[in-house]
Amino acid sequence: MHHHIAQRTMLFTLVVVVIGLHITGIESSATERNLQELLFTNYSKTVRPVENFKDVMKLEVSFQLMMIQDVDEKNQLVTLTGIFTTEWNDYLLKWDPIDHDGIHEMIIPEDLVWTPRIAQMTSATEDFFIPLPGLVSVSYNGTVRTHSPTSFTFPCSMAIRLFPFDTQTCSEALAPWLYDENYMTTESTIEDITRDLTFDNTEWQILSGSAQPLTVYSDYPPKGWSVVVLTLTFKRRPLYYVMNILLPCMLMAILTQLVYLLPCDCGEKMSFSVSVLISMSVFSLLVGDIMPPTSESVPLISRYLLFNTTLVACSIVSATFALRFHHRPPKELEMGHWIRIMFIDILPTLLMMKKWKKVTRVGEANVAMKSLFVPSKQKHSLNIVDVDAEGNDIEDNGREIGRASCRERV
Fold first, then answer.
1. How far is residue 358's CA from residue 279's CA, in Å, rounded to a whole number?
2. Backbone angles phi, psi at 294, to 5 degrees
3. Is residue 164 reached through a cis peptide bond, with omega within 30 degrees of 0 on the bond before it?
4. Closest Cα partner for 183 from 352, 48, 379, 23?
5. To the nearest whole number, what is the mean pLDDT of the chain?
6. Which of the two residues, 302 and 333, has the higher pLDDT score?
7. Poorest-confidence range of 96-100, 201-205, 360-364, 378-382?
8. What tens digit of pLDDT does each residue of 58-115 get?
9. How far apart are CA 379 and CA 399, in angstroms?
10. What is each CA distance from 45 to 41, 110, 127, 136, 236, in whole angstroms?
């Protein structure tokens, strides 16, 4: 019996509470509707809300950066995503909360009140204006506030000289459309725009961000415009480019030096050098696709790739001469006059080496000239003579003996 009475009592209490809340909601909605009708009677949303036409309206703006959405180095564009807030005072939208059931704030559609249009000074898209949120917040003291989640793209001159260890600084100016400083001034309520950063970019690290008011003057028409300049400084995370571009290029530069260790008879000296040259060209194309087509500065990585490419090209040239000398025909085995002077007389003196000994007998000259084409048992080198037994030049006799010995080898 008592159990049924308790259940009925709880059910009755629940019904009373629901009905009370419903009635209170109806009264609250009716009170807010009456307040809106009172405020917007004879209200014009096309007129700037100031008591005197000559009064300068104060507009407070702020931007809270959420993330760097995109950085396009090739086209030099930056896209930011965040929340843009504007705040101003409308003297026509004031009321006493005591007279209206304690209502301190209302959320109303933005098309019911006057709202300033904020434009980007250097937008990279077709729409220069910051989009309106659709709803605005109105306080009892006349303060109107908007919160607009927005994403805007603007140009930024990229400093690519230190790529991939570069740091970028980009700026964008926001200003009320058509209202100069005689009608409206802008102030920034948040100096550090990165304090509420939500998402961290995997390629860029944000160093600092600020919003500063500034007055810009134009020549035609000669007016001053109150703007807010957003400045963002960020640097690149270089790990991706170091692992995928710099380290492979360094390894290929080391491999280039191994060309000189390959013997001329292996047949792979030229193909190895050309393969390294093609690889360096591919890496140069990859870097060129990332960089903007500008002639103001050349990135350090491009200079490094150019140096490596030049080094590989020089190795190919030296390998070509080495193969040519190694596989030269027998008729080109004769030493020229200037080569003899350079390598027999001048270079040994400069290198502090002992010159070739003079031969005093024709027999020794013949043996020495024969050894020109016969490898020595102790050293794989060629022996050269200069004079005969009388001390005269035996170049003609030695040339004949050398040709005979060459024919014997062939």
1. 52
2. -125, 150
3. yes
4. 48
5. 76
6. 302
7. 378-382
8. 998 888 888 888 898 888 899 998 888 899 998 888 888 888 888 888 888 888 898 8
9. 23
10. 11, 10, 23, 13, 46
Question: 29 Cβ partners below 8 Å, 6+ apart?
Answer: none
Rg of the Cα atoms in the chain:
43
Q: Which amino acid is at 339?
A: I
Q: How many CB atoms lie within 10 A of CB 276?
A: 22
| Cis upstream peptide for 133 (omega within 30°) | no
Residue matched to tokens 């500034």: 214
The pLDDT tens digits for 359-368 are: 444 455 455 4
Check the CA dihedral 144-147-153-155 and report its sign: positive
Q: For the packed helices 362-370 and 395-409, what is the interaxial angle rounded to 10 degrees? A: 40
Residue indicated by tokens 């009925």: 8
Residue 387, pLDDT > 60, answer no
- The answer to whether 132 and 72 have CB atoms below 8 angstroms apart is no
Q: Tell me the one-letter amino acid at 376.
A: S
What residue type is 15 in one-letter code? V
- Enter the tokens of residue 172: 């964008």
* CA–CA gap between residue 142 and residue 154 (Å, rounded): 34
Other Cβ atoms less than 10 A from the Cβ of 44: the count is: 10
Distant-in-sequence, close-in-space partners of 383: CB < 8 Å, separation ≥ 6: 368, 371, 372, 376
| Structure token pair of residue 66 | 């959420």
Contact assessment for residue 145 and residue 66, using Cβ atoms and an 8 Å cutoff: no
What is the rounded distance in angstroms from the CA atom of residue 340 to the CA atom of residue 11?
121
Dihedral angle sign, alpha carbons of residues 114, 146, 85, 73: negative
332: confidence class by pLDDT, cuts 50, 70, 90: low
DSSP count for the chain of H helices, then E strands: 9, 10
Structure tokens at 394: 């035996």
What DSSP state is assigned to residue 203? S
